[in-house]
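New to this. Please check this record:
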Amino acid sequence: MRSNDSPAAAPTSTLAPTGRIDAVGLDRDVEAILSRLRRDADELQIIPIAGAGGIGKTTLARNVYHDPYLIDKFDIRAWVTVSQDYNFGNIFKNLLVSMKVFVKEDITGLSKEEMALKVHQTLMDRRYLIVIDDMWSTKVWDEIRSYFPNNSNRSRIILATRLKDVAAYVDSSEKFHEMQYLDDVQSLNLLKKELCKGECRLPMLEAMENIATKIARSCGGLPLAIVVTAGLLSEVSETEADWEQIADNINLVITADEEKYAAILDLSYTNLPHHLRPCFLYMGAFPEDYEIRASKLVKFWIAEDLVESTATKTPEEVAEGCLEDLVKRNLVLVTKRKSNGRIKSCGLHDLLRDLCLMRSLEENFLLTFMGSFFLPEIFAMQLRISISHSIILAHIDGSTIHTIICYSHSSVDSLEKFRKLKILDMLNTSVPAQVFELRDLRFLAFSYPNAILESTLNLRNLQTLIIYPDGPSILAHFPVEIWKMPRLRHLISPSVHPLPHPDGASPPLENLQTLSLATNFECSERMLKMIPNVKKLGICYSEEKVDGDYHLENLQRLEKLEKLKMEIRGDFCLRPSLNPVFPKSLKKLTLSGGRRPWEDLSIVGSLPNLQVLKLRNYVCDGSIWETSDGEFEELEFLLIDESNLEKWWTDSSHFPKLRSLVLQRCPSLMEIPDDIGYIPTLELIEIDGRNKSLVESAKSIQKEQETDYDNYTIQVRY
């Protein structure tokens, strides 16, 4: 049984999927919704989109949401996904996050009623378009409807739901838009489109047109079933016999099972290679509609020994490859990619999550329980549990459990009975000091009440340690034993007190991949020798060093370092003589604060492997930035966020491989250099909507490239 408004309720998704999708069979649906949105109305217009799970409601809403006409028409566009375990407060919190351009105040600590009122005040007298995706219950609409102001012809709401009766709750003469299953031609076209992603396979498809037609027809016109089947076909050999076998298997399962679509999805699981099955089942540990951080998922897999290193790849690289395999098979959705193209976050379609939960129970792999009321016996003999609230732990036998994943904001009094734990993920939960007695732990994420950590010496098997102290100004303090954890791969906290100096007998942490965020980190030779293979480093500086400097010139000794984030906080400023010397291995660099001259970026521009550069919080000070030949030769992504820059002088040859340019909070910069448009690799210019001059400049570059050079590759997003 679910408790819809309990603290245990799962979080809702905040953002719309990025960009439009070239979807098959949706053109008429998109045009029908757009025509209604363009129509004049005397009151708030609400358009429900109804249809079966997997039929494409979210894709339709996404393509409408990103229509260029609507982007210009509405002052506010916001998107929120509502799960079955919806939380009233989270719905409005995530709407406020979507409307952050207009919401200046800190919303932390607001009650659900205060957040709802803030949404109402923000939308009042503004043109707004809101998408409420995956709405399961009319009760949700009853609770939130009154908070959306009726701005007459200036406001629209799109409801994507499986419930046809939601139309009865809409104060409008408009009927809901019901999506239809694809016909045979559309089904075949979608199958072909999915099979040809990334490579041209048309000759093969033409040779097996009859089998492909039979397979597409067997999917019953449900887009999700078709794309999952395409993922299955893409991994088998391109022979007539193998394709015939897939066709026969589909016909067999849909004949034997009344839930034919569930059976088709299950077939995709049974055809997974054995090493990918537990990886897929682990996806069910996350709540419905949850945005799964790929980095955390990868760490879970490694801690569970689901992936191993090879002669040429680390466990992290192998795990990321497994995740990409699941994406290629259309079993996992990518919700965000990093600026370097790797997966940042992902998720599951509801029907595929249902498959995960069902298979996990059958195979005694994982019990996911997001309710508040439960029977202790369902937890008996479980190996892994994913729960909504830590209060459950006090009522179950923990003797067999080696994985606990918890999503509540609470505390735990005792962990004494969970002696076999390998994974303890309670990032929002305070845990007792006895956590440091759990010798088998490999993954530990939690909040700590006093931020003074006890001896970590017992945790010699630990691979990942993530700590969020209770309180914004509290630093995590580590004892010297932190250097005696040979298997440690990731040490992460929002703010780590200056690390203790290792004693002379401490061997280096050769497995450490990530260290972040170390405050006033001293880059002495001894300290850097302790982390020789670190790939990701986050450091920040906020005060002068009494007995010298921080030896930032030694950063070049970290020859494996690929990602560096360096923050300068407050009024502290590095002296010119203390400029860091970055290692040539860097691929991603994020700099924040410090107000250094723009000329200093020539040091950064000379890095031979740099692909991503993010400049935040006035890292450079001055009105003019002039780049030079031979700089940023490999750079693909450039972000400038918060700057007093007024003039940017550059040439297309100075950024020969740039793909994405993002400019945020640059109020004094009125135009983007025209030469940026001539960069052959450029795909995206993204501007925050507050700087209208910069938006028009980006549009002008886009129009010139389209009109004069037939170049339609540049997108402008704002």
Summary: The first strand starts at residue 45 and ends at 50. The chain has six domains: 27-178, 184-270, 277-359, 374-449, 457-564+574-581, 587-718. Confidence is low (pLDDT under 50) at residues 1-15.
